[in-house]
Design brief:
By secondary structure, the chain is of the alpha+beta class. The protein has two domains: 5-72; 81-109. It has a three-stranded antiparallel beta sheet with strand order 1-3-2. It has helices at residues 15-26, 51-67, 89-103, and strands at residues 5-9, 31-33, 38-42. The relative contact order is 0.16.
């Protein structure tokens, strides 16, 4: 059953870096977001009972980042992060449209040429 999504951002902690720290320290995998940099976790039947461990992992990760500021720098980015660097937004828009159309099978079929000509 789908559940809520927990998301967080911060002006003091690099949340993408926090996601990396949590993955290494506590084996939590969170989704990375951009603009603003943030993390989120979909709460599901498989992880709902581990919420206390998740909260402790967030606290432990933040504490580690405060002790070692070098951990407060991300080496990863949100998967869609490169789209922000594409200078031609029309090209990006066209790509997204085509991708969605293909995924939803909405692309019109190519017109068949009359084979008698």
């Amino acid at each position: 059953m789908p559940g809520p999504i927990f998301a967080m951002t911060s002006n003091a902690i690099n949340c993408i870096a926090l996601g990396e720290v949590m993955r290494k320290q506590s084996k939590w995998t969170v989704s990375l977001l951009q603009r603003p940099a943030a993390i989120h976790l979909a709460i599901t039947d498989s992880n709902a009972d581990a919420w206390e461990h998740f909260v402790k992992s967030v606290r432990k990760g933040i504490q580690s980042m405060k002790i070692d500021p070098s951990l407060n720098v991300n080496h990863d980015t949100a998967m869609y992060g490169l789209t922000g660097a594409i200078p031609d937004k029309k090209m990006l828009n066209d790509f997204v449209f085509i991708h969605q159309a293909i995924m939803l099978d909405l692309c019109p079929e190519p017109e068949e040429k009359d084979k008698t000509q």
